[in-house]
Amino acid sequence: MPRSILGLLLFLLLVPAGWSQEVTGEGVGSTKEQAKKEALADLSQNISVEVKSVQTQLSELMGENFHQDASSIIQLESRLPLLGTESFVVKDVDYYSALARLSAQQAIPLYRTQLQEIDWEIKQAAQQLEQVEQNSERENLF
Q: Which in 63, 64, 80, 136 has the greatest CB count within 10 A?
């Protein structure tokens, strides 16, 4: 997760001035919540996505009958914490449409704060580890 946050922060910081300073995602659903969730998923995938692919093949020979079957599954996954997003939902005739927006101007301070918190937690864990190692060394001396 810290790498995802750092990657997103770097993306937002390094976007050239000529490019848009925001990322958007679109979603459609039968409820407001579903449309919003789809828009946030689309927004997240527009920033970073991990692709997983599973392919299987099955061959059977029963007597003189030969049967072969194959399948392929592609899974997209994005596990980014989205801080400072805005969502807009509109009701159409029989469904809802949503737009999720992540603005660099609003998001950068939030990600910076979260990175500082993670940095503090890492330093605390390192100090605790050092203390445990020192205690272990003392016990081994006696």
A: 80
